[in-house]
Design a protein that fits this description.
The complex is a heterotrimer of chains A (283), B (380) and C (305). Chain A is an all-alpha fold and 283 residues long. In chain B, the strands form 4 sheets. Chain B has a 6-stranded mixed beta sheet with strand order 6-7-8-3-9-10, with helices on both faces. In chain B, strands 13-12-11-15-21-14 form a 6-stranded mixed beta sheet. In chain B, strands 16-20-17-18-19 form a 5-stranded antiparallel beta sheet, with no helix packed on it. In chain B, strand 11 and strand 12 form a beta hairpin. In chain B, helix 3 crosses helix 4. With 305 residues, chain C is mostly helical. Classes of the chains: A mainly alpha (283), B alpha+beta (380), C mainly alpha (305). Chains in contact: A-B, A-C. Chains A and C meet through helix 1, helix 3, helix 4, helix 5 and helix 6 of A and helix 1, helix 3, helix 4, helix 5 and helix 8 of C.
Chain lengths: 283, 380, 305
Amino acid sequence: MSRLRNPWGRPRFLALITGGYILWAVLPVLLAIAFAFNNGRSRTTWQGFSFRWFTGENGSVLHDPALRDALGHTLLLAVICVAVATPLGVALALGLQRWRGRGSGTVNALMLLPLVTPEIVMGVALLLLFLQVFGGIGLGTDAQAIGQVTFTLSYVVVIVRGRLVSIGPEFEEAAADLGAPRRDQFLRVLLPLLAPAIVASAAVAFATSIDDFVVTQYLSSDASTTTVSMLLYSSARGAPTPALNAIATVNLVITLMTLAFAFLVYRRFAGRDEATSLATMEV
Amino acid sequence: MAGEINLEELCKKFDDFVAVDGIDLDMPPGEFFTLLGPSGCGKTTTLRMIAGFERPTSGRILLDGNDVARVPPHQRNVNTVFQSYALFPHLDVAKNVAFGLKYQKVDKAERAKRVGEALELVDMTEFAQRKADQLSGGQQQRVALARALVLRPRVLLLDEPLGALDAQLRKNLQVELKALQAELGITFIFVTHDQSEALTMSDRIAVMYKGRVEQAASPKAIYEEPDTVFVADFLGVSNLIDATAVGQDGAACTVQVGDRTLKAHQGATDARGDVKVMIRPERIEIEPHSNAGEQRMPGMVERSVFLGGAYEVHIRVLGGELVKAMVPNDGDVSAASLEQGAAVSLHLPSDALRVLRAGEPAEEEEAVETAEAPAPGAGA
Amino acid sequence: MGSRWTWRLVALPGVAWLSVFFLVAFYAILAVAFGNQDTLLQPVPHWNPLDWNVGYVADMFDNFFSGGPFLKVSLRTIEFVAIAVALSLLVGYPVAYFTAKHAGRWKGVILLALILPLWINYLMRMLAWINLLAPDGIGSDLLHTFGIEDLFLKIGLLDEPGGWLNGQPTTVILALMYGYIPFFILPLFVAIDRIDRRHIDAARDLGASPASAFFRVTLPLSMPGILAGAVLIALPMFGDYYTADLVSASTQTNMIGNQIDEFMRQGSEKVTGAALTLLLSLFLLVLMFYYLRTTRRAGTTVEDT
């Protein structure tokens, strides 16, 4: 009897909602991916399977200059972003973790702020910065990369610092105790232990950069600085071909492969539980 | 070669908290020296200062006569076995053990030989290629020992190295560790909060409480002749009875407990006024109620707890104090027949009664006045 | 270990980066909003606070309090966000609860499915719905076939048959919900997952029915997760402009983000845009502050009861 008074009914009902939600969340995207392989111009009517929008002679991701360049520019920005944000973020994480006392609280808050600032505010701020202060840099690739680094930095710090906390000071103390000078405490002990987190944070930075839209759009200059996200934004309501679905699919595959790789690395070297908690936290 | 450690007025403050409050300790070469105390007593901080992980606020740490208080850990010839072992998870057992040899001028062949010897010493040769996280707790402990010992330190520091292990394994390793220390002849400084572990293994124990050394002496002396109420209470089971010291009777002190007068031969026999008299349960004899007279106190059995090898009998003496007495389980039914409510007489031999200057026992927190404690480092 | 200064030095490049590209950049909004504009409507920032010109920000306030278009857009934004967050809670809570407490051996797989949308490009997810809701799209067909279109038409949530993508507030709200709900479910899942099963068992043991165990134990204990999730999605929603642009493409559904976007990127009234951005930031700051205070209080209430 009392079971019937459960506000959600039997878990079966909950299971139904959960299943329905997952279907609703994923199915539209799966359909969009499916139509990337449509052998026709329609994105709503199935006309047979083909790779023409990926590799065909006309208007495909591979051969249409606009699409190809957008993908290339997206990847270029992602590589720059990872190359700058990872070392910068790892150093900041190390510094913040070890630096006790005056100022560390303020810097910590400064590091967390970009995570809660709506992107449009950052976009406007950086746009005005590059227009009014750094006119020399101006808008374009450099500004886009700088903008992306500014908010991916926080992700790197959060991930690396989480790992630093779980490693604790003991291994470095053990190394010191065994005679290792400070340089070796870092290179022979801390760095190898930190490596999975560095790889994971680099992957997250890469994926975040690839999928970023607002900041990248605000800091773009001309057509040559268009990314995949910007292309999706500007073409979705036009009269696009399934090539738009195709380039989105390529984008998605790159993102997911990067993250899957990072997750596996992290799980292999830092343990399953820590990897799972990382995956659920990295919102 | 064994090293000698002398701590002189060693002090460590963390912000406002005084972790170690000016201790003096001599740790002779080749001894198994234990720092014993409850958590927060400053024992681990003391060990970390000897290792070099904490810089003393003031005071000196002498290693064979040289002050090393400001020498960084990697330049001290002492090594540590960490509480959770801190084996490097990215290296296998052999590489863990070889880690520190890189910083000693040792050639490759010699290095391999010493790693082999160290692993053999702790009986871990067959696990040389295992990763650290593929070992059991006991195995990790052995590897941690080998990793420290391979550097031939003059002093080995051990921070509760048995704390994470289950009871049976602990017992075995206690014996092994003691044997190893005797075989190597180097100084071991061992930190624990487990009094039975300390009594089993040590040549000398320093009991610490609230950043100070309450007493440093051999295990037997610490147990039999505690200097302070805290030490008496912390090691083993003690009866601590409120009393008033009223006078001297030869070598003995006359104390008043309720309306009884007892003689106590041990401890601070020159004390006067409020004191505690201490007696171990195994030194109390339970006699028939009719046995009145000198050194006797009447009481009533409250309960008898069966401990296997003995009975612990709780007796309420005249005046209200609860006293525990140990009666060996020798097959005699008389001990078992000590039922609740039975009237008995307790014999408290004067050579088992110890006078302690009054202080609060550890259970009643915060109350111990360390000012009452004897000078730090004083032996018994 | 290591001296205090070593670690500050290690942190320095990152701190410098954030100072310049976050703090100074944010200050640029202030300098422009409190600045002036030249004859070509280009901003002339006033960097010195003593020279600040409050005119444009004051105009903005006037516009708000006299019921001007900015007020209308702001109220619409709040309405959209509030409904989208409420819908997210309605759908997200059961999902998070089921995954945390009843999923059993499916937990890992479901969790993966919950995380997956976070890493699908937001614009691709919108593109997917644009495909579906286009007049000849599969989604429009299904909605028509199952009578949902008729229902929505009847209760006024849709203006014309097949017009899902033509300036419909309903579509914008649902798209916002679709876009942000994964970010809501995860913190909620973490919060519910952390609730010790034994607390619920204890409540049942003490005589609570499943319903009252839920309302007296589970729900209060998951409150911090609900709040965290709600704030986490409300903040970016308030700054969103692309969702409305993509699924509605009409000024009828303009949100505050669209307004800012029009001033900053498309038009050339950057000073007005900066002033509006500043006000939005202030509003969100208040929201954050309120959230931090409530979570602190919620934490203590849970301990008290």
